[in-house]
Amino acid sequence: MEQGEVIIRVAGSAGDGVASVGDTLSKLASRSGLGVCAYNSYQSVIRGGFVWLQIRISNEKVYTHGDNPHILIPLNQAEYERHKDSVLPGGFIVYNEDKVKVTEKRSDVNYVGLSLRQLAPEQAKQPIMQNTLLVGSVVKITGLDRDLLEDVVRKSFGGKKGEEVAKANIDVINAGYNNTNITYDFGIRKQNKQYYVITGNYAIATGAVIGGCKFYSAYPMTPATSILHWFSANAKKYGIVVKQLEDEIAVINAAIGAGFAGARAMCATSGGGFSLMTEAIGSAGMTETPIVVVNSMRGGPSTGLPTKTEQGDLFQALGASQGEYPKAIIAPKDVVSCFYLAPEALNLAERYQMPVILLIDFLLSNGYYGVYTSELDPSKIKIERGEIITSVNGDGYHRYKDTPTGVSPRVLPGTPETYYVAATDEHDEKGILISDIFTDEVKRKKMMEKRMRKMEHVVKEFPLPTVEGDEKPDITLVGWGSTYGVIKETAQLLRKEKVKVNHIHVEYLYPVKKEISDILSKYKNVVIVENNYSSQYAKLLRMETGYHIDKSILKYDGEPFTPLYLLNEVKRYL
Amino acid sequence: MPVVDIKKYQVELNPTWCPGCGDYGLLRGLQTALAKLDIDPSRVVIVSGIGCSSNLPHFIKGYGYHSLHGRSLPTAQGIKMANPDLLVIAAGGDGDGYGIGVGHFVHACRRNLDITYVVMNNQIYGLTTGQTSPTSDFGSKTKSSPDGNYEFGLNPILVAIASGATFVARTFSGEPEHMSEIIAKAIQHRGFALVDDISPCVTYNKKNTYQWFKERIYKLEDVGHNPYDISQAMQRASEWEDKIPIGIFYINPDKPSHDQIDPVIRDGGVVNKPIELTEEQKKEILQAFL
């Protein structure tokens, strides 16, 4: 087995408390200075279904939840049957004997069966306590810190009211710990490192708020919902207007209203909600109103795979709304980049007075990742609002003034001595409609060119993606969004097999920087890796630059890539 | 009655409406009401959707947002929530507000944010050259209902009262003074105020004409209507065809407006406050993930 890390899979039904086991273990790991990454695969049901959560704990920072587990914690019989073969040779299956019957045992796996009925003290015999019992046992097996575990549990049941519950839990932890007689040295040692454990959604929310987001609206939709939860819980504390509205159409239009009024506004949804928003996204382009829209992608089309991951909405973002208007599409590659790109998206939206779309996916939205505390540095977040005029002198204000950058200085409603109308109909520099009876080809052309000119300036300031790895590679992997971690790790595995590899990850997707094709042209064996069916980024790149990546590794079964899966696929091209 | 100078709200641009359109009446009524209340035009934001009537923001001095078809209310609410110091008025037509935007209408009533919503109700789609609208009377003949409308008209007054609006009124473009008084009261009301203005379409609606209304209209204040009594309000709101009441149907002074409840909006909103968090706040935000 790999030294210095342990992969634990908890499998049960919705309602069994799978997530709470993951939560406890990730907190324990991060407080021990260990790297952690957790992925939760679940069904769109409240009770029942198949849920598994995999958590990888390591001496180093980890980028994926890994492949097969060292330790399986099945919370019921069906999940035991489903996952028992996945356990790595030499691994462990830790289970509650009252619930799971093991008949045939694998010779290469250690079985740790504990009976909640026999071991738990009287006041703690509720079925949910089996999770605590089994966590206690896993801590013993792996050598993780029991005292810290008690501390984590005590904190999660904090307050006077929780003391009794915390005590009951700690008794059960000890029962699990003390009745486990087998241990294994995974090589995990407490580290002197400080980690945050954060999801992509939380990283976007916190980054945006540090970046001055003052208005957030949403309608609940998996996998974007936890952004709404974070905002709702923190609205009062940080002075943010947070609204759950009647539908996604209201959500985006209200956010645009807030952006027009001068608040840094953001909203989030998934593909279905994004579909409803698209008309309004175009209107923000036309009225030149800043707005950030997060689309956390799930499997599509239609309601598709509500709780599964995919990168299938790039073209949807690209084609959002009728007609042509300036916009940017950005896809953070990990939680650190979520933290910085959300405020950057707000900056771009306000500087260029246009919609900015942030594309993430289920994996990144809801996966828990440990990142060094130094990696999320609020002092690196700068608020840039673009040109806002606070007083107007003389001969009338032209809201849509034709300028060399296409950006016209704006006044916010309420500014004295002036006024203007922002119109989704085509208009002149003053905002007066040229549609209907005033149609004027010259003005139309001028305004269209003014707006679209923004794109030339936007693309200039986009940074180029960095190339990681060998200079003269046998293979070059290209990706965008949440596949960064798994591509990085697969590259490491390839290097162990003496394969020379590099990888390029594009975060600023649109407008496309032509230089990306120049970089790629230098390499002879370029392969695109995407969590979709039709390789949308490769198509976009070809459309915009003519450079064609004809080799692809695509996955669209709802689950994310894992390192060994990708390694295996890459070998086709070696 | 003192002379009110509405020049403060007039712009050079002439409306694009047909001669005789009821929307002129509403425009003038709104300008008069704002002038009566002596509100600085730069504090006013008029938000509309799409349709003939939704061109209104261009014809009145003040900030404006001419949004998408049916979306004036969410946009207006976003503006008001971000900056409650602004006087926000949503404007549009019956197709815009009671058709494509009816979902937002119901929720805006329920939310009770301090916004005035004026609807120029002509019971027809004007801009698209005369099809049935959600408020077209049963049996009325239009381009999309040549044999007479098979559907029954929506009653916006009843919908608004039932949905929780706290000020519900009807005006008539043929009664300009009465209208401007009611709009002024609607603006002064703290909460969501609907003013459904009967605004005849002289080009496409051959049934619901000025004359048709003049024969039927009466004023609620003339019959001793008590607008604080919801059951009376609903009863009066149900009248149509034979007798059509105008005036204030319903006022609920007890229900707080949304901007009085939400602590951030109540506190003055976000636009006029510093945008950057304090260093302690920034640190605290991340502490939660340790």
Sheet with the most strands, sense and barrel status of chain B: 8 strands, mixed
The span between the termini of chain A is: 26 Å
Largest sheet of chain A: 8 strands, mixed
Please give the number of β-strands of chain A. 23
Please give the share of residues in helix of chain A: 25-40%
Query: How much is the radius of gyration of chain A in Å?
Result: 26 Å
- Which pair of chains forms the biggest interface, and how many residues does each contribute? A-B, 71 and 57 residues
Number of helices of chain A: 18
Determine Rg of chain B (CA atoms, Å). 20 Å
The secondary-structure class of chain B comes to: alpha/beta
Uncertain runs of chain A are none
SSE string of chain B: HEEHEHHEHEHEHEHEHHH
* Content-based structural category of chain A: alpha/beta
The strand order across the widest sheet of chain A is 6-5-4-1-3-2-14-7
Multimerization status: heterodimer
